[in-house]
Specification:
This protein has about 450 residues and is an alpha/beta fold. The protein folds into 2 domains: about 230 residues, Alpha-Beta Barrel (TIM Barrel); about 130 residues, no CATH class. About 40% of the residues lie in helices and about 10% in strands. The strands form 2 sheets. It has a 9-stranded mixed sheet with strand order 9-8-7-5-4-3-1-10-11. A two-stranded antiparallel ribbon has the order 2-6. Helix 6 links the parallel strand 4 and strand 5. Helix 2 runs antiparallel to helix 3, helix 6 packs across helix 8 and helix 15 packs antiparallel against helix 16. The chain starts with a helix and ends in a 6-residue tail after the last helix.
Length: about 450
């Protein structure tokens, strides 16, 4: 009986010993094959289609494609600036806006609803370009609809604040992530001189009321100021610190008034070429120093262009040395899109510094399919291929990599670049310049003549 039991249990004991030995033996791990870029993108694309926050998934896709230098993208841009309207209620002395550039084309809620690709974008800037978005009766409806579609997106807008009524404030406060006010002054008389049609007291009343409503929201909107600096207003920039602090402004950004570009014609007087601070460099540096101290006391961050004294040995318009180019890599062709329904055609660009007319190259219907076709058009693929090459074949892009690309000293060169770029894009695609492109070239040449005239009003 015992012998029979031993015979029966012997194979069981062998099996137990083998199992124990196997457990003690280091496991042989079969390495997983890394997924290819296309496999990763396909998996993320499926996630994007069903995600409640598609912009988050799209951002991961975009980063993978940008790092790989992909020319044709599955991802959408991260930032979309949508030019809502070409009309404005102000006639600012430093603005390109003119009667001959007036365009009554506007985007309404129905247009935005057709742009379904916007749900994948991380930040949507509902700006007016040269117009005022609050002139749109359904602007607040557009903000509400976008917020409902994707609550995680950041919605931005820029306004002069003159139309920021109580009703509009209640609709926008807490729904916009950021509202930027183009203020450009700290004194009533300067404000009303520069921004013809706007009143300082009315603006202050609007902003105080907006903040009263805004700060009671669960997620208050960040209120910011922008300040186009010129000889006419730079000396009061330090005083703006107190105004910004009292209103709870999150930050103030300073930019230069510049003379580059094609200006529309109108009857009101404008700033002249001599009002640019490139001809008042010591004054600019001193006022920025005073402003930095004042803003530090107010607790409001101040952003500003570099001091002229910091680049005193650099010739205006000088190219950035080749060894520093890596710090100036441009990601705009992958991450940024400007949508412009104005100027007699719908077109998009990845950069507002490219002044060439692309209407015949990138016609834009607002639907998803047409946007993707344009986003991956031969023009955009070429930009992604060329923008970070050394030397860069794209004239405007190479011009952008200067120590001071907005200097009046090189404004004529910029105009020449615009002409060359317009012709270059058509040559690259074997296209004859369209009527719009020919008009753009003519405007640039006329602008050069105006600049050569010297100090005349713009």
């Amino acid at each position: 009986m015992i012998g029979t039991m031993r015979t029966v249990l012997r194979p069981v004991r062998r099996l137990v010993r083998k199992c124990i030995a196997d457990l003690r033996r280091p496991a042989e791990i079969t390495p997983c094959q890394p997924k290819s870029l296309d496999e990763q993108l396909l998996e993320l694309e499926r996630q994007r289609q069903t995600s409640s926050e598609p912009h988050e998934v799209n951002a991961r896709m975009n980063e993978l494609e940008r790092q790989a230098g992909r020319e044709e993208l599955r991802s959408y841009p991260l930032y979309a600036a949508v030019n809502m309207i070409g009309l404005c209620n102000a006639r600012c002395r430093f603005c390109y806006y003119g009667d001959d550039t007036l365009d009554r084309t506007v985007l309404r809620l129905a247009d935005i609803q057709r742009m379904r690709w916007l749900r994948n974008v991380s930040t949507i800037d509902l700006y007016g370009g040269l117009g005022e978005p609050l002139l749109l009766a359904d602007f607040a409806d557009i903000v509400d609809w976008l917020r409902e579609q994707n609550p995680g997106q950041r919605l931005h807008a820029t306004s002069n604040g003159a139309l920021l009524t109580e009703a509009v404030s209640r609709r926008l406060a807490g729904n916009l992530a950021l509202l930027n006010i183009s203020i450009n002054a700290a004194r009533p008389e300067t404000y009303e001189h520069l921004m013809i049609g706007c009143k300082w007291d009315a603006l202050m009343k609007n902003l105080r009321r907006f903040q009263e409503i805004n700060l009671s929201q669960e997620r208050p909107t960040d209120l910011t100021f922008s300040f186009v600096s010129s000889r006419a207003n730079i000396e009061e920039l330090p005083q703006l610190a107190a105004v910004a602090g009292q209103l709870g402004v999150k930050s103030v950004g300073v930019s230069h008034f510049c003379v580059n570009g094609v200006w529309g014609k109108r009857s009101e007087p404008r700033l002249s070429r001599n009002d640019t601070l490139y001809f008042h460099q010591e004054l600019f540096d001193r006022c920025i120093g005073d402003a930095k101290a004042a803003f530090q006391l107010s607790g409001v961050p101040l952003g500003h262009p570099p001091l002229f004294s910091d680049a005193a040995k650099v010739q205006l318009g000088a190219r950035i040395p080749a060894e520093q180019h890596s710090a100036y890599e441009c990601f705009a062709p992958w991450q940024t899109v400007y949508v412009n329904p104005q100027n007699s055609g719908k077109w998009i660009s990845c950069c507002c510094s490219i002044n060439a007319d692309h209407r015949d190259l990138t016609p834009l219907d607002l639907e998803d399919v047409d946007f993707v076709r344009t986003w991956n058009s031969s023009l955009f693929r070429m930009m992604r291929r060329e923008v970070n090459r050394r030397p860069c074949r794209l004239g405007n892009c190479e011009f952008c990599r200067t120590h001071d690309k907005s200097s009046p000293a090189v404004a004529m060169e910029h105009m020449e670049m615009s002409i060359a770029a317009t012709q270059q894009y058509h040559e690259m695609f074997a296209l004859a310049p369209s009527g719009g492109a020919a008009e753009s070239i003519a405007q640039c040449r006329q602008r050069i003549v105006e600049l050569q005239a010297g100090d005349s009003a713009l």
